[in-house]
Design a protein that fits this description.
Layout: H1 3-13, E1 28-31, E2 36-37, E3 45-51, E4 57-61, H2 62-74, E5 78-80, H3 81-87, H4 89-94, H5 98-109, E6 112-116, E7 119-122
Antiparallel strand pairs: 1-3, 2-3, 3-4, 5-7, 6-7
Length: 123
Amino acid sequence: MKWEEALKLIVANIKVGIKLDDNFKYKNVEQTPPYKCFKFDYNGEEGFLIKVSKVQSIEIPISMLKNLYLSAQANDNCYDRSIFISKYPHQTIQQIGHIHIIGKMFVHAGVAAQDSNWKYILL
């Protein structure tokens, strides 16, 4: 699937209030585009805000989703921890949750299937 089609599915299926992982109390979508992301020098780029704990949320800009989706395509359609760490080492160290949340977003949008706890296969 091309990125443009995947993006349409992500935007159509990831809505405010959706719980991305039933196994956790949090991991709920709080905001969707046109939400502006500013953390980690995202400079107001549109994206998503996901609640990951009682007091913490993470921002997922559209460019991050695109970068990781295209990287997964180049990695035999596999999105996993190694891809995220190679592209976003600072976020990996500074804030928990990105790797799993993005995989769950891909699954919920219908652009990937979960293969194991930290491995997702693009459809």
